[in-house]
Specification:
By secondary structure, the protein is mostly helical. The protein has five helices and no strands.
């Protein structure tokens, strides 16, 4: 083999190696981009799941606030209370209505944010999740109705229809939380069940992200030790 032929062979080999290097780099770049996209999507789903779940918890706390059985002096308009800090009898309806309208503002604000995040979740995961909010929405409606009925009885006590003792008990424990060990409060378990709908839906997204993040961090640490 002549020197010129050897040179041509070496040149062709170098060209082949360069081409192979370019292809290899392109493959690794593509794989790296795919991993990055998956990581980005996982992070997006994780953040969205946390946002929705935090909104659910804010609704839960707002409902607890509305259903708290005690009304404090500072919740009444100042001109409607006597020198003992009690609501004046002639302002029973107006003062109580004021308290519950203010309390309900916390539910309206929290639920409005939940509706917004729930819509984002449907965009991310599909419209099949649109009914996840139904039970919690129903609980809010039932509580609102109970408040309105209570205020109506205060406004027109003579016109309030008579009801059976068990019906009065049921309505009472919609309006007021009975505590964890109450056998009469059947409304709080309905709220808890509505919250559980979100827990079962969103927890896997949150826990999966924690697991993969921990795995990646461990792999990176092992790689650094090796280097």
């Amino acid at each position: 083999m002549e020197i010129t032929e050897i040179g041509e062979w070496i040149s062709a080999g170098k060209d082949a190696l360069v081409g192979l290097s370019v292809i290899t780099a392109a493959v690794f770049a593509y794989l790296g981009l795919s991993v990055w996209k998956k990581e980005l999507k996982g992070k997006s789903e994780y953040e969205l799941a946390k946002d929705v779940l935090k909104s659910v918890y804010r609704v839960r706390e707002a409902l607890k606030h509305v259903r708290h059985p005690a009304i404090y002096q500072y919740e009444y308009p100042e001109e409607m209370i006597d020198h003992h800090g009690h609501l004046k009898r002639e302002h029973d309806y107006e003062g109580t209505a004021h308290v519950y309208e203010k309390r309900w503002e916390t539910v309206a604000k929290a639920f409005g944010k939940l509706e917004e995040h729930h819509l984002d979740a449907q965009v991310e995961w599909g419209p099949e999740f649109q009914n996840k909010i139904t039970k919690l929405r129903s609980c809010c409606v039932d509580l609102r109705i109970a408040i309105q009925q209570m205020l109506e009885r205060k406004k027109n006590p003579a016109e309030a229809p008579l009801s059976k003792p068990e019906e009065r008990t049921e309505k009472f424990f919609v309006l007021y939380a009975g505590g964890a060990d109450s056998k009469h409060d059947t409304f709080t378990p309905l709220i808890d069940d509505a919250l559980n709908e979100f827990e079962q839906w969103l927890r896997p997204h949150i826990e999966h992200k924690k697991l993969t993040s921990g795995f990646c961090a461990g792999a990176q640490a092992a790689n650094n030790e090796t280097v």
